Amino acid sequence: RDREGVIALDPWDIRELKNSLNYSFNGLLERGLVELSVTDGVVLPGLGVRSEMDECVFLDENGRCSVHSARPGICRMFPLARLYHEDGSFSYFIQEGECSKPTGVKIKISKWLGYKDIRAYEAFVRRYHDALRDLRKKQETLPVEERSALQRSFLEYWFVSGDCFS
């Protein structure tokens, strides 16, 4: 609730939502569950929003996540965040003051995120992050009409076709 900006989704998130809800990428878009918006100069999918309440479309009447088992990585991580390093690695850190409930419990990040194969997930996320960074760099040198074509092919490969998982 009371979101500040778009909550971006990565291809892993989209795949989980498609499998859980049995919709195609276009089906998620048509139902308003996912929305396309410009994020740092690139058209990317984000969580749908109920604009009248500025809340995630997946919150039920009790304010609980209705797709909890397929929730996006950003939701799984909260209140953690990722810091990407130049050497290809990344680390996690706690966003102080973001979560109103004190936990005081130590838990491994792999367990917190709840993915069966954390290494595969993290490797995929890093590959996507690098491809997104490269897209942003490449489009800086292109005319506007070529940027659009490049972004469409990026969306097709990473979100629509599922080829990125092959």
How would you sum up this structure, described in words?
- With 166 residues, the chain is of the alpha+beta class.
- Helices cover 40% and strands 16% of the residues.
- The chain contains 6 helices and 6 strands; from the N terminus they run H-H-E-E-E-E-H-E-E-H-H-H.
- It has helices at 11-21, 25-30, 73-77, 109-113, 118-139, 144-160; strands spanning 34-39, 42-47, 49-50, 55-56, 80-84, 90-94.
- The strands form 3 sheets. It has a two-stranded antiparallel sheet. The protein has a two-stranded antiparallel ribbon with strand order 3-4.
- Strand 5 and strand 6 form a beta hairpin.
- It is globular, with a radius of gyration of 17 Å.
- It starts with 10 loop residues before the first helix and ends in a 6-residue tail after the last helix.
- The model has no long low-confidence stretch (mean pLDDT 87).
Main sheet: strands, sense, barrel: 2 strands, antiparallel
Helix content: 25-40%
| Class by alpha and beta content | alpha+beta
Order of helices and strands: HHEEEEHEEHHH
Give the CA-based shape: globular
Rg over CA atoms = 17 Å
Estimate the mean pLDDT confidence. 87
Biggest β-sheet: strands ordered side by side in the sheet? 1-2
User: How much of the sequence is in beta strands?
Assistant: 15-25%
- Contiguous low-pLDDT stretches (5 residues minimum) are none
What's the number of helices? 6
Number of strands: 6
The N- and C-terminal alpha carbons lie at a distance of: 35 Å
